[in-house]
Design a protein that fits this description.
The longest helix is centred in the middle third of the chain and has 20 residues. This protein folds into two domains: about 290 residues, Response regulator (Rossmann fold), CATH 3.40.50.2300; about 170 residues, 3-Layer(bba) Sandwich (Glucose Oxidase, domain 1), CATH 3.50.30.80. Helices cover about 35% and strands about 15% of the residues. The strands form three sheets. It has an eight-stranded mixed beta sheet. By secondary structure, the protein is an alpha/beta fold. It contains 21 helices and 14 strands. Helix 6 runs parallel beside helix 7, helix 8 crosses helix 19 and helix 10 packs across helix 12.
Length: about 550
Amino acid sequence: MLWRSKEILERPEWSLGRALYKSMGYSDYDLERPLIGIANSWNRIVPGHYNLNQVSDYVQQGIRQAGGTPVEFGVIAACDGIAQGNEGMHYILPTRDLIANDIEMMIEAHRLDAVVLLGSCDKIVPGMLMAAARLDIPAIMVVGGPMEGGCAFDGRAADATSLTEGLGMLKVGKIDEAAYLQLEDCATPTCGSCSFLGTANSMCCVAEAMGLSLPRSATIPATAADRLRAAQESGRRIVELFRDGLTARRIINRKGIENAIRLNTAIGGSTNVALHIPAIGYEADCEIPMDLFEELCRSTPYIAKMNPAAAPNVPDFHHAGGVPAVMKEILPLLHGDALTVSGKTVAENVADAENLDNNIIRTLQNPWGKGGGLAILRGNLAPNTAITKPAAIVPEMHRFTGKARCFDSEEAANQAILDGRVQDGEVVVIRYEGPKGGPGMREMYKAMKLLYGRGLALKTGLVTDGRFSGTNNGCFVGHISPEAAEGGPIAIVEDGDVITIDIAERNLHLHLSSGEIRDRLSKWRRPEPKFKKGYLALYARLAESADKGAIIRHKFE
């Protein structure tokens, strides 16, 4: 047990620090106990974080019950949904590194003994896991939980993405304005991370599978009383982790990370996990190359199906048994001896788990798909790698060939789709949206949803050096590396070039000779940076490519 705060609160040498704590009402009794940081990303902008102050209250109760002193501080959190399809999305992925840095600075500056990480959404959870791995102190992840599904729409419960799909339908006359405005009022009925299996809920499930959240806590709905009981239990548990000296890297290691990758692909989780897992591995000194990611995905059956691949939402998945039920089913593929914050191994945690709904969670012998939920592609259009999500793509679209329709920004592509300038049989190419070129690697969520709304989701493909939302479906490939801004082949694709997406063969092919590709690349010139000041200008210079997790390297190697 390393009691860091005690070292800077001993009298008389460190009475200044004690006096500063006492100025806020802390007592000698408080300062004789371990100081447990609470990194709380609560705000009134992000629906997934709206309830975190109440969750924090229960975490603090648990810390005090177990003999610790809670010390809370704030962390930024941005909403992907509000930033979708506009300039704001440039800033979303770069917040991940700021969050990790912020938590590191606060914990180290004040010599806190352990940390409870409170977050729910897309870049916040991975940023917090990166911080835990970097700091290697006792840590536990507590999430805010998913929102409930909304009113009935297009054959399923509505969610936040239904508005974008509905916009496409409105433009082609499938629904009228009154129906669209009604949808606005009923699509997102509660706070919480979006109800589908997007990046937010995927990363919450990843945190649990990795072992840094208590069993079955990732998917408890935001408005359920169990959410608060789990928070209180987490508060008690973090004090026990401190006393036991169980630090984050004993959990966030090769075994825990491989378990998390297998769980994510078994549930058809977000493609963004392929960015975040390598970044977390980097912080844990545990390299996760894309070849390993592909090996684990290919050998893990897809056994749990939910929105966007099916009608059930994440709360439905929770009631079916959640993460423990899936992990019990795939336990033969997992490191069952991996440690978790419960103090037990993975195998012990899932021993009593039950699958309560075979319509959501299937068995290893009868999976929804044998090849896993994610796939890593290569080819002359993606020499390093690209990623797609077979779990969200209907089988007949697993091989698609079409003529390229090229756009140098998300906005240009979205407007062309809305205007009806994208036709059946085309492959939409959206480039200069990678980590450096975007900068910030925006999500092409809106383009995919507009194609869906216009009835083109099963008639077109989309490839990009940007990202996708976990809720996207259709035929899509993202994270193309090298990106256009670094002179990757996607930069020289022209309208009318033929592209083949072949998921079974893990291939992304531009139908040009190698000589033609070299000739075009010799004439390519790097464009001017889109941002010449501020954090995004710095990020564009420092960020690695997507196949490296878009990390910012900070180690002397």
